[in-house]
Hints:
Layout: E1 3-5, H1 14-19, H2 30-47, E2 52-57, H3 60-71, E3 77-82, H4 85-96, E4 100-105, H5 114-123, E5 129-133, E6 135-136, E7 141-142, H6 145-154, E8 158-162, E9 181-185, E10 196-201, H7 203-211, H8 221-229, H9 239-255, H10 257-277, E11 293-296, H11 305-316, E12 318-322, E13 332-335, H12 342-358
Parallel strand pairs: 1-12, 3-4, 3-5, 5-8, 8-9
Antiparallel strand pairs: 2-10, 6-7, 9-10, 11-13, 12-13
Helix pairs in contact: 2-9, 5-6, 11-12
The chain binds pyridoxal-5'-phosphate.
Pyridoxal-5'-phosphate binds next to helix 3.
Amino acid sequence: MLNLRLPGPTSCPQEVLDAMSHHMVNHRGPEFAALLKNCGEKLKPFFKTQNDILILTCSGTGGMEAAVVNAVSAGDKVLAISIGVFGDRISKIAKTYGANVTDLKFPMGQAADVDAIKKALEADPSIKTVLVTHNETSTGVTNPLKDIAAVVKSFDKLIIVDAVSSLSAVACDVDGWDLDIVVTGSQKGWMLPPGFAFVSVSQCGWQAIDQCTTPRFYFDLKKARDTQAKGETPWTPNVSLMFALGVSLDMMEKEGIDAINKRHAEMGAYIRSKVKALGLPLLADEQVASNTVTAVGPFENGFEPDAFRKILNKEYNVVLAGGQMELKGKIFRIGHMGWFTKEEIDECFDAMAKTLKQMDYKV
Ligand SMILES: *Cc1c(COP(=O)(O)O)cnc(C)c1O
């Protein structure tokens, strides 16, 4: 079987895939309404929230765009905290819709510095909204979101969080940390194929949405909320994926959020120790290293991570991710989120060790 070690899409349990072969039902009928309601409720404990959670048919980026077009108006002052490609992406989305964005960027492999965020908010009281990534998938770094949110909320700003590659694998206490709009995507930690974004919205978030003047149609979150309350979605949803979501949430409920978080933390530490044992460099500072994706590199000895990945794929059926943007061709990434076993990780590292030997890798 393919050992798919990407930070999305991730492997799915057979039960989840089987659920997708269910016949179509009326998406405006009672069976679907019950399923949608059940899924909406069962998502809440993973977000640790009582907020509404909207299920949107789109990828994670659609969820990010939904957050922006519903809560950020043209001309709004926005602070965009970025530690990599996905932090840059939400900043770009906000700029696309005419927001007045101040970028606060940190070096690749590092987390955002909370004091620098505090200084940026002090320096410009007109900032209304802060955009931040929980887990930066391009560099394998998890931001100290609890501390960041505490600072942002001490200035009474709206906080929009890209938690696409952290929820549900890494704890994200939406109510406890007072996060306003939080976005995640089905193909990351949820043991599902791509196709859904889940978006939670706080009371403050709904107030911002009420005041927002940005035009929106497909991604109108008020419409999504009001329609979902009636057991429907505004537009035709991915019906097959909803059946799968029902099954994956049952499985995740059985395992329990704490056990899921613990499993990811243990496997994250295990994978980092295996990388070091091979003599390979970790991109991320270890104190802030992600427990869902590990970035390896950059390499200064002429080693080509893309050639390495090609051999792994062709000869060992192991699929790793490459670097993105500035890190293209410089690193590779190992995904470890959602549904996977320690055996798959061990197989992956066995294949990596053999391939490094084949390539005559010098530590
Ligand atoms: C994967 C990912 C996204 C984008 O999701 P798509 O489903 O590819 O649109 C956004 N943010 C982060 C942190 C991600 O890992």
